[in-house]
Amino acid sequence: MALQLRKAIQCLSTGSKIFLYSETTMKQTKLPFLLSALLGVLATGTSTPAQAVPSFSRQTGQECANCHIGSFGPQLTPYGIKFKLGGYTDSDGKEGHIPLSGMVAGSYTHTSKDQSGDVGNGFGNNDNSSLQQASVFFAGRLSEHLGSFTQVTYSEPDRKVRMDNLDLRYATTLQIDEKDTVVGVSLNNNPTVSDPFNTVPAWRFPYISSGMAVGPQAATLIEGSLAQKVVGASLYGLYDNNWYAELGVYDGLSQGALTDIHVDPGDKLDGVAPYWRLGYFKDMHKQAFSLGVFGLTAHLLPGWTPGPTDKYRDFGVDSSYQYLGTREHVFALNGSFINEHRAMDASDPASSTGHLNRADLSASYHYDKTYGVTLGLFDISGSSSATLYAPAADSGSRTGSPNTNGYTMQFDWTPFGKEASWQAPWANMRLGLQYTGYEKFNGARDNYDGFGRNARDNNTLYTFIWFAI
Amino acid sequence: MKRFVTAVLLGVLGLYTVSSAHAVGDPKHGTDIFAEECADCHSVLQDKNKKGPSLWGVAGRPSGAIADFDYSSAMRQSGIVWTADKMDAYITQPKQVVAGTRMKYDGLGDAKARADLIAYLTSLH
Contact at 8 Å (CB) between A101 and A55? Predict the structure, then answer.
């Protein structure tokens, strides 16, 4: 039991998402999920959701609901967007706030069909419960213009404390052409983690998901492939509360540094990777919208082996809309489309150039800042490659195609995080029920992997409990 | 003719009365305006300061009066007493009334909405 709980505490956060990593002896998880999660919390101390940081609330006097739709991170309201761009420095004017928070997330995952083998690290081939993540955040105002959102995560797959998201900011407000202009610099370790909109990969729906289920094989580079493996600085500005621009550059960490912070080295970034972002944002108090474009270019050396590189050029467009009204009924739409042009001179020299597209659209409704329902649609399509998408049980592709599409629906309940909430702003919790269904998976509906597994076999029921303090 | 003139006068008086009622404002609707426009930064709970000061009892209060709130020096030195007229002017164009205010709000142009909001704020005591 103790081993189960200890191993269940694991989870890694990639960008805004928390992925469960299978590992331990959870083959026969008999303990009801909620009980195991709660016991896990007691066993491991307190923690916080990767995107809802109560120390921000203690610093500002604002309730979580001011910055987050549904009173829990990471879906930002216009106020939350401005708080982030302001460098996390807004405060209630009082001294003595400690910029520390914590989180724990526990979860249970069921897929329609057992996987062909155990998920690994002691977890079984289905019906796995786990205490997903335990993190500590150094998050808050450090000085008038300097703020931090820095996360260190204990995760069970590797049973190590590892570096997670980093976003150190300096921000100030200038007058340009008699308009307020926020200008800042972000030092961070994940392209798009610095972005304030819930349309980019680091912060889009679903905000928490299972790592115990089989996921699509293909992802564009900007969708977290460089997360925590790089460090970069970006200069950004918000002119007249409307026009947003960001320009940054990332450099890869050395293998030694990645080993020290317990991050999988993955592929080596060859040279530097420029990142850029342009957007228009309009906050009308009762409603808000944004439109934007963003991009990342990078060359990678697979396996850190000297030689030819894989070249990626990602380009994205995104848009969002929020109806806020009196905040009793809040409706939000988020959409994005990413096109990746690839020249896989190292990984797939025969095919060399190709493309990969990813489209996401999500719609959410929250009542009384407490009850939420979100529907997300996703579609992945791109060039076929028998090398990149080879047949393999569960995770491979019989057709060599990355094409995948489906939906995710989530219901959640967030009882705290409002002005009059019990023990506000210390007590924060979200309970959620999520279902992901696939129409097509890695190129086919039926026998997609060449081993008889169908797309619908990966349909996933996922429940979670998320605590923040 | 006399009846007609009387009817017209009564009608005008009636319109004036309605108009005055609008000017006074509807505090119930004002709660919605507060939630839409103000509640991100202000609380109406006594002694609950957020990014902005508590607005409980704001009507008739001198500016910069909450001891433990970090007002801008411009607000502290403005000498304003928050009468309905002053609140109306400030909510319409904050920086025109207190240059140097920290309140990042462009203003509420709708006079009816302002009247309702002020009616609500005035009821908080």
Answer: yes
Q: B41 to chain A, minimum CA–CA distance in Å?
A: 7
Q: Do B69 and A325 touch (CB under 8 A)?
A: no
Among A154-163, A174-183, A442-451, name the most confident range: A442-451
**Domain covering A2-468, topology:** Porin (2.40.160)
Structure tokens at A454: 């169908």
Cβ–Cβ contact B32 with A under 8 A? yes
**Which chain A positions have a beta carbon within 8 Å of B69's beta carbon?**
92-93
What pLDDT shows up at residue A51? 56
Q: What are phi and psi of B31, to 5 degrees?
A: -65, -35
Q: Which long-range contacts (CB under 8 A, 24 or more apart) does A288-292 make?
A: A288/A77, A288/A78, A288/A320, A288/A321, A288/A322, A288/A324, A289/A319, A289/A320, A289/A321, A289/A322, A290/A197, A290/A199, A290/A318, A290/A319, A290/A320, A291/A318, A291/A319, A292/A197, A292/A199, A292/A244, A292/A317, A292/A318, A292/A319
Query: In the numeric block, which tokens belong to residue A191?
Result: 């392209």
- Distance of alpha carbon B33 from alpha carbon B29, whole angstroms: 7
Q: How far is A224 from chain B (nearest CA, A)?
A: 32
Q: Which amino acid is at A239?
A: Y
Closest CA to A4 of A38, A41, A40: A40
Q: Which residue of A has its CA nearest to B71?
A: A93
Alpha-carbon dihedral sign for residues A272, A360, A464, A128: negative
Give SS3 for B98. Answer: coil
**Residues of A whose CB is below 8 A from B43:** 61, 419
Give the ranges where A265-418 is alpha helix by DSSP (H).
none
pLDDT digits (tens, 9 = 90+) for A274-306: 999 999 999 999 999 999 999 999 999 999 999
Nearest to B121 by CA among B13, B24, B22, B6: B24
> Residue B30's closest chain A neighbor by CA?
A326
Torsion of CA B44, B45, B47, B50, to 10 degrees: -60
Residues 6+ apart with CB under 8 A from B65: none
Q: What's this model's pTM, rounded to 2 decimal places?
A: 0.86
What one-character-per-residue DSSP string does A303-325 give? GG-SS--EEEEEEEEEEEEEE-T
The pLDDT, as a whole number, for residue B3 is 57
Question: Is any Cβ of chain A less than 8 angstroms from the Cβ of B56?
Answer: no
Query: Would you place residue A155 in the very low, low, confident or very high pLDDT band (cuts 50, 70, 90)?
Result: confident
C-alpha angle A19-A24-A27 in degrees, rounded to nearest 5: 100
Question: Closest to A92 (Cβ–Cβ): which among B39, B40, B50?
Answer: B50
* Class of residue A199 by CB neighbours under 10 A (exposed 0-12, middle 13-18, buried 19+): buried
Res A420: pLDDT? 83
Nearest to B36 among A66, A77, A326 (CB): A326
**Domain ranges within chain A, ordered by starting residue:** 2-468
Q: How many CB pairs under 8 A join A and B?
A: 46
Q: What is the largest CA-CA distance in chain A?
A: 65
Give the integer Cα–Cα distance in Å for A331 and A97: 33
Full DSSP string of B58-89: -TTPBTT--TTS---HHHHTS--B--HHHHHH
